[in-house]
Amino acid sequence: MIKNITDFLKNPKKSKIYKFLNVSDEEIKILQYLLDKYLEGKEDINVKEIISEIFKADKLSSLEYTKFIKHLIDEGWVVNSSFSVKVPEISILELYNSTISLSVSFLKLLEKGSLDLMVLDKKPYEDYLEYLQDQFLRVEIYEQLASLKNNYSNESSSIKRLQSKLKLIENNIKDRIEQTKIDLPVLNFIKEYELNEKEEIIFLALLKEEYTSSNENKREMNYLLNLVSTDEIDRIKNRSLLDDNAKLLSEGILDYDEIFGSFGGYTKIFFIREEILNELIHPRKKHKIEHIIKDTIFDLIDSNKSLKDVVLPKSTKDMINALLKQTDKKVIKRLKSWGIKTDNDVSAKIIFYGPPGTGKTLTAIAIANELKKPILSLDASKILSMYVGESEKNVRRIFDEYTEISEKLKLKPVLLLNEADQFLSTRTTASFSSADKMHNQMQNIFLEQLERFDGVLIATTNLLETIDNAFSRRFDKKIKFQKPSFKDRVKLWKMKLPKNAEFEEKFDIKQLAKYELTPAQIELVIKNTALQVAMRDNPVFKMEDFINEIQKEMQNAFDNEKEVGFKL
User: Fold this and answer.
1) Does the structure show a pLDDT above 60 at 83?
2) Mind listing the pLDDT tens digit for each residue in 365-390?
């Protein structure tokens, strides 16, 4: 720093900082003079005195030199100490009789010797708070810009530098989001409500204030509007963003209190509504859901898989993507306007059918993850009871407990009924045993409850042919799962093989993919092989290790299929 100061005072054009300044010879002399006085302990210097000392001009010609002072202020190297209005609005005489001092930007430039904006982290977000910190830094730049616009013109170098910094931060946030796999509730919220850039900044500024509680004035209407406005005219136009019929208020995102001022009139103090705040600052924890379902008929499954983790035929994946289109705001809006839907939630009743191990349950978990919902699972065999009448009660219990859980969570989980053949199989028409009558009664109750169900229900079954037509009509989609093709098996092996393991040189995944295994079988073979290899002194994966386990699995699978009578 001392060298930068010495160089600038002796020979400014050869100093390290000169290339950043964009100033004339006259302006260099003014900066040298101010720096010399600053080192003597004098910060605020009269403009008239500066011009007189440096340029030895008489009173009238001195006024001409104020243009150099004005340009230094616009560039952000000097600040006006006497006025709080923008420089373009100050008259020549006012500027001539004002005081100025070196800006913080100039002093920092002397200290660091460069204008490096910042070192940015290019890695994906590994924590929700990392994302919020970047967004709050972005808001801080908007706050600094709003403050500068009150004193400098929009052409000021200080403003331009901050705008460059803002663009850098925003691009970095975008890049990190694209790499990120964890859930970012605030980002999901912004997308869900389709907030435009100005609405987003107002929302993030209020969220930042909830975290920091730094200044109650930052909730005030004019302060928020200044963040997203370029000038007074723009600010007047932007008042519509905080009107009662604007999106932020009409859709229940923000609310406000009216505060009366000491000089009459009132202002509005805005805040994010409590229920939304609880979701974003304190996302629902898994243990809370676990506590709610503790004594129910359901199991909670971690919805930690995405559709990227599932290898499916294109036709199957297209049907699932069509289902997820229900979450699109435009689609929801159209369906509501046509009277097809009454709320914004996804509603669907789906059958996944196909051989065991083909990814039915995994896909259901991925759908729940895409919908940002927990998934409640129930094995249909739990419903069957040796006691007459108990099965009928348990069918009602499924839907009663689901409704109760939904009300407590304030959202509708995905309901997964695994191996639902018992519910969906063709009903007997003749009068047989009491067990047959009980089974028919159970199915009638299930049919009735299914008709009234509102949410996402996924039932899995191995055979579609045995499903009663009355049930088949109640399901919106029937999606077939089949054993993967050779091409898909290659993808599965590549996806599931250990990433940090050592393989023999001649190892060829295509040799493994020749065996017609299901995704579940491939995963099991890899697990069993890894256990064997891990116990060796030289833990290198060999082709024969996998082939041995594949042969064992195929033999066992064949025996199992023969036992239960499935025709695959």
Assistant:
1) no
2) 999 888 878 899 988 777 765 555 67
Give the residue ranges of DSSP H helices in 90-196.
Answer: 92-96, 104-112, 128-149, 157-179, 185-192
HEC readout, 154-175: CCCHHHHHHHHHHHHHHHHHHH
Contact between residue 202 and residue 246 where contact means Cβ atoms under 8 Å apart: no
Contacts 24+ apart (CB under 8 A), 32-38: 32/8, 34/78, 34/100, 34/101, 34/102, 35/5, 35/8, 35/9, 35/102, 35/110, 36/9, 38/101, 38/102
Of 419, 439, 418, nearest to 428 by C-alpha is: 439
pLDDT of residue 113 exceeding 50, the answer is yes
- Tell which CATH architecture fits domain 486-564: Orthogonal Bundle (1.10)
Whole-angstrom distance, CA of residue 217 vs CA of residue 518: 61
Inter-residue long-range contacts of 64-68, CB under 8 Å, 24+ positions, other chains counted: 65/26, 66/92, 66/95, 66/96, 68/24, 68/26, 68/27, 68/30
CATH number of 2-112: 1.10.10
Q: Cα–Cα distance between 365 and 266 in angstroms, integer?
A: 51
Dihedral of CA 84/86/92/95: which sign? positive
Which residues 6+ apart lie within 8 Å of 201 measured at CB? 139, 142, 227, 228
Q: pLDDT (tens digit, 9 = 90+) per residue, 456-483?
A: 999 998 877 777 787 778 888 889 898 9
pLDDT tens, position by position, 350-367: 999 988 888 899 999 999
β partners of residue 541: 503
Rounded Cα distance, 415 and 405, in Å:
11
Any idea where the domains of the chain sit in the sequence?
Answer: 2-112, 128-280, 285-480, 486-564
Specify whether the CB–CB gap between 205 and 218 falls below 8 A. yes
Q: How high is the pLDDT of residue 561?
A: 44
Q: Which two tokens stand for residue 537?
A: 């002194």
Model confidence over 222-261: pLDDT tens digits? 999 999 998 889 989 999 999 988 999 988 899 888 876 5
Tokens of 34: 């101010």
> Which residues face 461 on adjacent strands?
353
Please state, as a whole number, how many other Cβ atoms lie within 10 Å of the Cβ of residue 178: 8
Does the domain at 285-480 match CATH 3.40.50.300? Answer given as: yes
Please report, to the nearest 10 degrees, the dihedral formed by the alpha carbons of residues 477, 478, 482, 484 taken in order. Answer: 0
Kindly report whether the global pTM for this prediction surpasses the value 0.70. no
On whether the CB atoms of residues 492 and 484 are closer than 8 A, the answer is yes
Pairing of strands 540-541, 502-503: parallel
